[in-house]
Design brief:
single chain, about 250 residues, mainly beta, 1 helix, globular
């Protein structure tokens, strides 16, 4: 897929003008061209990524070439081997900013959908009085990523929590043995865009934060143990090389 080899290289290293497209024009942030080969699914073909702030509220914005959020994974009927689709903003924020241990990995905001499990037990996204049915509804997470060779050479995984360990975790950690938080920030899809408004503590300054935009598929390990959740299919990277060139409010 587009940018796949670049993503692998950048993952191991750990990391303007406006661009017009169908549906409108966007200023600031990171701009990317529509994939001319057509190999990247349009709903995951990034053309713009940006983070802006208003006091302690940050808006994470991503635009794709067509119909954001219209493609979701099919149900497999079991957790092992199930798929996750995601819109992701990898950042330079320290993992401790949102309640994980300090320097745990690449802190990223992710908007995800998956049909075979629920990882937001505190929230009922589809309002059916049964939160366990909410996996296939688009929802947000903080995730901590690290390179993990067990997912493939140079690929990333959500960091596992080893059995018997007790790392610092956010209050809205959903109970899965990985560094994932379910804070309940609702993503908003509008034609070609997806946005998430995130509230930070009033004493947190993210003005110098750098970021990128990624669309990717993840997969639960077939054996459902370390690594539990691997990045297996990078569909697009806004910068082309995961260099985190975006800067908040610019």
């Amino acid at each position: 897929m587009k940018h796949h080899s670049l993503f692998i290289t950048a993952s191991l290293a750990l990391l303007s003008s406006s661009y017009a497209f169908s549906g409108g024009s966007h200023s600031g942030g990171i701009h990317a061209k529509v994939d001319p080969t057509g190999n990247t699914p349009a709903t995951f073909d990034i053309v713009h990524a940006k983070i802006t702030t208003d006091k302690n509220i940050a808006t994470f914005h991503m635009a794709v070439s067509e119909k954001a959020g219209t493609s979701k994974p099919l149900a497999s009927g079991k957790l092992a081997g199930s798929n996750v689709f995601s819109y992701v903003w990898p950042t330079s924020l320290n993992s401790a900013t949102v309640g994980f241990e300090k320097d745990a990995g690449i802190l990223s905001l992710a908007v995800t959908a998956h049909a075979d499990f629920d990882d937001t037990p505190l929230y009922d996204e589809n309002s059916d009085n049964n939160p366990a049915n909410d996996g296939d509804v688009w929802h947000s997470h903080w995730v901590v990523l690290q390179a993990n060779e067990q997912c493939g050479k140079g690929m990333l995984a959500v960091v596992d929590i080893p059995e018997g360990s007790s790392p610092k975790l956010p209050k809205t950690w959903p109970g899965l043995p990985i560094l994932l938080d379910s804070p309940g920030w609702d993503p908003i899809f509008n034609n070609n865009t997806v946005e998430v408004k995130v509230a930070f503590d009033s004493n947190v300054d993210i003005s110098n934060t750098k970021y990128d935009g990624v669309t990717a598929g993840l997969r639960v390990n077939q054996s459902v143990h370390a690594p539990l959740l691997c990045v297996v299919n990078v569909m697009d990277v806004a910068s082309g090389d995961l260099s985190l060139p975006g800067k908040v409010n610019q």
